[in-house]
Amino acid sequence: MRSGLTIAVLAALALGASAVRGDDVDHEDLRRAVERNELVSLRSLFDWIEARYEGRIIEVEIDDDDDMLIYEVEMLTPKGNKIEFEFNARSGALMSLSGRGLSDTRDRE
């Protein structure tokens, strides 16, 4: 069960996401965790997504789900559908992928 803790990721702004939200944020702790290789960088996740899916990343959050940090990345496809990726923030493993029009945007592999 999700704890409800949602942490915005300001780095997403620098990387082009147009909307980032959240509360109880300690961005410096996140940045330092990425620098210590304790968390996967958003840039590496964005590179992975953009290599495989066509669209624009519109929102990024990091959630604490029973002590597992999860990056949630939302993408708007060229056809206007929203798809959501969930990644283990520590390993970068894709945990789930959902949304309408998913098969329409999988054309980059």
From TrEMBL:
InterPro entries according to UniProt: PepSY
UniProt cross-references to Pfam families, sorted A to Z: PepSY
Chain ranges of the PepSY domain: 50-94
Domain of life: Bacteria
Entry protein name: PepSY domain-containing protein
Species annotation: Oceanococcus atlanticus
Highest classification ranks of the organism: Bacteria, Pseudomonadati, Pseudomonadota, Gammaproteobacteria, Chromatiales
